[in-house]
Design brief:
The complex is a heterodimer of chains A (344) and B (261).
Chain A: H1 2-32, H2 40-50, H3 60-94, H4 107-120, H5 125-149, H6 155-180, H7 186-195, H8 203-222, H9 224-230, H10 234-239, H11 244-266, H12 272-284, H13 288-312, H14 320-338
Helix pairs in contact in A: 1-13, 2-3, 3-8, 3-11, 3-12, 3-13, 4-5, 4-6, 4-7, 4-11, 5-6, 5-11, 8-11, 12-13, 13-14
Chain B: E1 2-12, E2 15-26, E3 30-34, H1 41-48, E4 56-61, E5 64-65, H2 71-77, E6 78-81, H3 93-98, H4 113-125, H5 141-154, E7 159-162, H6 171-186, E8 190-194, H7 198-204, E9 207-212, E10 215-220, H8 222-225, H9 228-235, E11 239-245, E12 251-257
Parallel strand pairs in B: 3-8, 3-9, 6-7, 7-8
Antiparallel strand pairs in B: 1-2, 1-4, 4-5, 9-10, 11-12
Helix pairs in contact in B: 4-5
Classes of the chains: A mainly alpha (344), B alpha/beta (261).
Chain lengths: 344, 261
Amino acid sequence: MHSSGTDRSRTPVLGIAIALCALLLIVGVAFSVGQYPVSVTELLRVLQSWAGGAPHGLDPTLDTVVLEIRGPRILAALLVGAALAAAGAAYQNLFRNPLVSPDILGVSTGAAVGAVLGIFLSLGVVAIQSLAFAGGLAAVGMVYFVAKSVRGHDPLLVLVLAGVVLGSLLGACVALMKYLADPYNQLPAITYWLLGSLASTEARDLWIAAPLMLAGLLPLWLLRWRINVLSLDDEEARALGVATGRIRLMVIIGATLMTAAAVAISGVIGWIGLVIPHFARLLTGPDFSRLLPVSVLLGAGFLVAVDALARAIANVEVPLGVLTALVGAPLFLWQLATARRGWQ
Amino acid sequence: MRLAASNLAYGYADRKVGSGVTLELAAGEVLCLLGPNGSGKTTLFRTLLGLLPAQGGSVLLDGCDVQTLTRAAIARQVSYVPQAHGAFFPYTVREVVLMGRTAHMGLFAAPSARDYAAAVAAIKRMGLQHLADVAYTRISGGERQLVLIARALAQDARMVVMDEPTANLDFGNQVRVLERIRALADDGIGVLLSTHDPDHAFLCADRVAMLVQGELVACGTPAEEITAQRLKQLYGIDVAVTALALADARIRNVCLPLGAL
């Protein structure tokens, strides 16, 4: 079985290497495109002097563009893309369905209610972000406890149904607040938030969001083998020695923490959590210990690229949620039509 | 090592499937469960494995109530081969068999070299080497059944519960699986299996149990219990049970369904 042993180690390394190279390239490009073009040499000299080297002696505007505007924004795109893709990968295994996205349990709608309420009450940015984060957690918590109190059914099915029902209820709350909002000040802000954007991200937001995302990623990584087994029938997984209820709860907590932190700083950005794990699976196979890192890298790269596109293609910023859908949907359909490796 | 049910009532809170089942499986023996469709075989197995709570009576694993044991503790002692089914993601056959090792890994652990070795050995024992790197989603129903048995072997438990392990297999593979089951018992493992073919009990079982509408109607050696009368009670058809002298002077019992044919 010597050859199979090397197979095991080679494939993930290749997949991760491809994803990592793509990511570096995309980040480089993302720094240079925009209203104020930055060349690669300029970028390197700015970064060098920022890291403690000699002053670069170039236009000081470069410092502002690279370090204060694009830097935090690209970092935010990396984090948000990685978080959404990782949460999506975990949920697809948990719900045994490749068409599941991180907001299946209502985290995005919950966050939307929080953020829209904040805008509706004319609160500040930090308050809006906090409300969004809390709303996301509260929505998933409610879904989980509703599902928990219904007995005698397949626990997964009840979770999904509770998520759908609560999601549409919260959707109605958002619609009501939009209807009541001031159409000149509040409504555009609400719409803007619901479409997702990283334009107003500041370094300060990242200091709060990044640790939350890492805290959510940790259980997903630690439980990586158990998450593989969760993709079997519930009874089968239990017969193999997995306490499915407890593991499922830990995965839900981790994925929800990551998604809620992401949505709080970026607004609702769809498609990443659905499409990226799917492509990662094609690259490395379904084993979660490889799927998770590759999803993280691809998700990060994808959102940096889409965000660069959002800045570059028009004079006005195109909302991210619109772009991810425009890019993600055709990619997904193309993959569906050409894939040779099915699930069933 | 013993798996014992005493006066067991099983099923669901709102729908009782069976009751009064007293049954014991010892290490090193093959116990074959016969029963018509809907007689509650799978539900009984789930209850014996602690996957469903007992509605009355008890299931003891080496003297401990299964309801008080953790899932991992049960899985280290009893493995389960469910009926072959679809899968959701294209895990390779090796990865699926490796999942059988889960109960031996720590909560946060990934498979160790020892786990890989156990999986490879189990794949070899079932003669599945050529499929090890193929996606489980791409192999036939019969091959999946063999993979699930390999997974149970990798689990390294002293008892195996198999729900119709021969259901999807061709004639040759049915016999190969029965040979494998016999060899497992000879290695000291207790096997409880259900089947729809009473001849399988003649081929590999030490004891046979018969389930009708959730209640045990017989439990004993195949030669004593598999009679035309019993099979009529179980399946509602006329069956001839005869002894057949083979060329090498062995005697074999066989069942021949008559029905109205």
